[in-house]
Amino acid sequence: MLGDHHxxxxxxxxxxxxxxxxxxxxxxxxxxxxxCYDATLEINPENRLAWYNKGLALGGLGEREKAIExxxxxxxxxxxxxxxxxxxxxQLLELNxxxxxxxxxxxxxxxxxxxxxxxxNKGLALxxxxxxREALIHFERSLEIxxxxxxxxxxxxxxxxxxxxSDEAMVCFDRALELEPKxxxxxxxxxxxxxxxxxxxxxINCFERALELQPLCxxAWYNKGxALMEVSWFEEALVCFNKVLEIDPDDILAWKxxxxxxxxxxxxxxAVKCYNEVLKNDSSDVEAWxxxxxxxxxxxxxxxxxxxxxxxLEMDPxxxxAWYNKGxALMxxxxxxxxxxxxxxxxxxxPLHVDALYNKGMALASIGRFEEALVCFxxxxxxxxxxxxxxxxxxxxxxxxxxxxxALFxxxxxxEIDPIFVPxxxxxxTTLMNLGRLDRALACxxxxxxxxxxxxxAWYNKxxxxxxxxxxxxxxxCFNRANILRIISDDIT
Length: 493
Fold this sequence. Notes:
Layout: H1 2-26, H2 30-43, H3 48-60, H4 64-77, H5 82-94, H6 98-111, H7 116-128, H8 132-145, H9 150-162, H10 166-179, H11 184-196, H12 200-213, H13 218-230, H14 234-247, H15 252-264, H16 268-281, H17 286-298, H18 302-315, H19 320-332, H20 336-349, H21 354-366, H22 370-383, H23 388-400, H24 404-417, H25 422-434, H26 438-451, H27 456-468, H28 472-492
Helix pairs in contact: 1-2, 2-3, 3-4, 3-5, 4-5, 5-6, 5-7, 6-7, 7-8, 8-9, 9-10, 10-11, 11-12, 11-13, 12-13, 13-14, 13-15, 14-15, 15-16, 15-17, 16-17, 17-18, 17-19, 18-19, 19-20, 20-21, 21-22, 21-23, 22-23, 23-24, 23-25, 24-25, 25-26, 25-27, 26-27, 27-28
């Protein structure tokens, strides 16, 4: 009788500790919950549920190895404990031990072939292992058993997106959000998918929904910033990247995003500081070295820009943006042959890189290789006949070759696309001047000066025409205006 009494007391005490532990667990007070589970296990070390719940609490604290030990204890007591196999697999997955996780989920499925969580979690492990198509089979099986799992619909969407099946991915994300409208990750992933589809404003709405639900969601702030950059709302994007950095001052992507926004806003010094923050944490970040180089180009620090690009290319000799930025810096230094070589490296990897083709054409023209320059411009115009800069570049080359009528056609094309393209008005004027059509040339220079009253070249060219027309007083006035503007420009430089 005395033994029965002690046993009843132990059971009562066990249940008290266990109930207290579960309440603390539900309140998110995992450390206190663990202490209570330990108290229950002192009374009954063979209770599988106490070991299992302690493992869940340890997982909540991110102590994954200790959590796995608890699940192993539960499985020693009951090798058929499906929830413990799933929980152990989940912790292994978080530790990137994918094969072991797959084995755990596989065991759970062997024990209970109709366990939707086991199928869904194994699918997630397969995604992490890169076996996307196999993962989809598992997600489908999970949803056959439980079609109302928002998490599995979400994971299916992620897998579909990995396979480039955007429409199906969108259906999955929408289904997840129907089932769980407060699913922050689903709003975030749907927004990212909408960006890839070019639906930027819809994407921004998704990120805003995510932030209503979780105002400190760094991913949502970052992705909203990316979306805002796509529609040239750079000030607003900067606010988003700053929000991310308030949440996590070491967020590399946010520093890069902030740097890019600052470049577009013309604040190049601050942009360089952003890229320095990235490089302080990771001096092997190829992208950061390249973007820093790009910002330095804008600051006129061309040699430093080249050094940055070279650092990138030491680490990744095929990195296209570094070759491109190096080419730009070399052009600014007048090292056109070297710039051409850089653009050729870009075009080896990306033959349709329009900016590289254009800059290569301009560099070739600068060293008198006009026929090769024309080839570059024609390649661009074969892709897009509405490129005003390229029509202008082609016109300039043709003018240098003495092909004035063809050059005139090109400048007219450029102005048809962009009627306020000041250099095109100026070049059209000089071409008409070379053709002896002085009155029309004068009208072009006047148009250029209407758009840009301080454009010294247009004042100078207008002066030449006026002299040819015998309008000497006007010639002197324009010539003096051109010289004053050039002196001012040199002083500023």
